[in-house]
Amino acid sequence: MSGLFSFWQEYRVERTLAALRRLLPQQVQVLREGKTSLVPAEQLVPGDIVHLQQGDNIRADCRLIEAYDARVNNAAVTGESLPKARGADASQRMT
């Protein structure tokens, strides 16, 4: 019985992770060495400048350099029910 329960939980976790992967962008518009190009999200490296547009889903480890009325949905990470306004300052949290 315990093995069956463990299998069922692992199966559900794999389905949830697959659904989250579908939410992430397949390609991201990146500024590297003064040129803008589309690269697979898996090839992002520290120092890349990512250009976001309305409705884009991004990884949570990006830092905003410039933002105009940016709202972030952290529901998958923190459980917050509504998107929160975010600014470009490292410590700035707008409400």
Features:
alpha+beta; 3-stranded antiparallel beta sheet; 95 residues; 27% helix; 5 strands
Assembly annotation: single chain
| Averaged pLDDT | 80
Structural class per helix/strand content? alpha+beta
Strand order of the largest sheet: 2-1-3
Total helical segments: 2
> pLDDT under 50 segments (min length 5)?
none
Describe the model.
A hairpin with a 2-residue loop joins β1 and β2. The longest helix is centred in the N-terminal third of the chain and has 22 residues, at 2-23. This protein has 95 residues and is an alpha+beta fold. The N and C termini lie far apart (48 Å). The protein has helices at residues 2-23, 75-78, and strands at 27-32, 35-40, 49-50, 70-72, 84-86. The strands form two sheets. It has a three-stranded antiparallel β-sheet with strand order 2-1-3, with no helix packed on it.
